[in-house]
Amino acid sequence: MIISGTFCEWYFGTTLGKKIFKLKILDDNGNQPGFIKSLQRNILVLANLWVVFTDINPSPAQTGNTGGTQVNFRMHLNNKICKTHIVKENKLIEIRELLAQENKKAAH
Questions:
Q1: Among 68, 82, 92, 101, which one has the highest count of C-beta atoms within 10 angstroms of its own C-beta?
Q2: Is the pLDDT reported for residue 84 higher than 80?
Q3: Residue 54 belongs to what H/E stretch?
Q4: What is the number of alpha carbons within 13 Å of residue 6 lying toward its C-beta?
Q5: What is the mean predicted confidence (pLDDT) over 68-78?
Q6: Residue 6, class by beta-carbon neighbours within 10 Å (0-12 exposed, 13-18 middle, 19+ buried)?
Q7: How far is Cα 53 from Cα 3, in angstroms, rounded to an integer?
Q8: What gap in Å lies between CA 34 and CA 93, rounded to an integer?
Q9: Is-contact 48 82, C-beta < 8 A?
Q10: What pLDDT sits at residue 3?
Q11: CA distances from residue 18 to 8, 22, 23 in whole angstroms, order as listed
Q12: Dist CA 87 CA 16 (whole Å)
């Protein structure tokens, strides 16, 4: 999965699952991630499987709540580390136009 995900993200800018939901992966510049960044993202997907369990203890004022355990997945950790973003395909033009405007402002 890591190898196929890396290749698909690098070559197509998406994976099969993301394609079904019409999503694309972009870097901070609005481009598809390069091969190394895609490989890094896909290796870091394993870190997303790290689950954190949190105990929920209701306050004494909350009657009827018994508490329990909440499960927190660290989803999108790979995006934070690699500085990539998952966006809807229909927003690509708008995102690239905004980035072009920002680049023009920065150039002046």
A1: 82
A2: yes
A3: strand 51-56
A4: 14
A5: 68
A6: buried
A7: 30
A8: 20
A9: no
A10: 92
A11: 10, 6, 5
A12: 15
Q: Is the pLDDT of residue 8 over 70?
A: yes
The residue whose two tokens read 């929920």 is 56
For residue 38, how many other CB atoms are within 10 A of its CB?
24
10: closest CA among 45, 35, 31, 40?
35
- In which element (H, E) is residue 72 found? strand 68-73
The string of pLDDT tens digits covering residues 23-61 is: 999 998 899 999 999 999 999 888 766 666 666 676 666
- Name residue 41's amino acid: R
Q: How far lies 21's CA from each of 11, 54, 81, 90, in Å?
A: 18, 31, 23, 11
CA torsion through residues 54, 70, 80, 103, sign: negative
Instruction: Give the pair of three-digit tokens for residue 21.
Output: 């939901």
The H or E element spanning position 44 is: helix 35-48
Unique residue bearing structure tokens 């290796």: 43
Q: Which helix (H) or strand (E) holds 12?
A: helix 2-12
